[in-house]
């Protein structure tokens, strides 16, 4: 067929989906912007949204998206103590009832292959959020999980920062 190298010949680099097929990546970015607007319209503030984005990214092992959303979380007013407690949210007392429900929903969406969203999680989260808030958070989870898969598959680099004290 063509003279393009086969993927097996490119062991040092991975296909960068956003560069190889930019129209699909742009559609995903537009979807993400729409989800952000849905969150704002439906009562999900940036603080709560970024907690969800960080947790999904951590669960998926996506260092790139974790960094992006840590930066956004700091801009949204999250402090270092709260940020470091996200992986241990069940044992931590720093999160509100809404934040705890959103973190639980984030886990359920990230691990959707483990039986979907259980009735127990749905009912618990549904007792905290309105239908519109639940839908907004659900779409946020779908969006970040999609980005995580693109980035993890492409092994996007996360170089050290010059100033390691900055989140």
Question: In a few lines, what is going on in this structure?
Answer:
This is Alkyl hydroperoxide reductase AhpD. The protein is built from eight helices and no strands.
Outline, from the CA principal axes? globular
CATH level 1 name:
Mainly Alpha
Given helix and strand content, the structural type is mainly alpha
The stretches of 5 or more residues where confidence is low (pLDDT under 50) are none
N-to-C terminal Cα separation, in Å?
Answer: 47 Å
The number of helical runs is 8
Radius of gyration: 17 Å
GO molecular function: peroxiredoxin activity
Domain Carboxymuconolactone decarboxylase-like: 22-108
Protein name: Alkyl hydroperoxide reductase AhpD
Organism: Microbacterium aerolatum
Quick tags:
167 residues, AhpD-like, single chain, mainly alpha, globular
Give your account of this protein's structure:
The protein is built from 8 helices and no strands. With 167 residues, the chain is an all-alpha fold. It has one domain: AhpD-like, CATH 1.20.1290. Helix 3 packs antiparallel against helix 4 (63-75) and helix 6 packs across helix 8. The protein is globular, with a radius of gyration of 17 Å. The protein starts with 16 loop residues before the first helix and ends in a 13-residue tail after the last helix. The mean pLDDT is 92. InterPro entries: AhpD-like, AhpD_core, CMD-like.
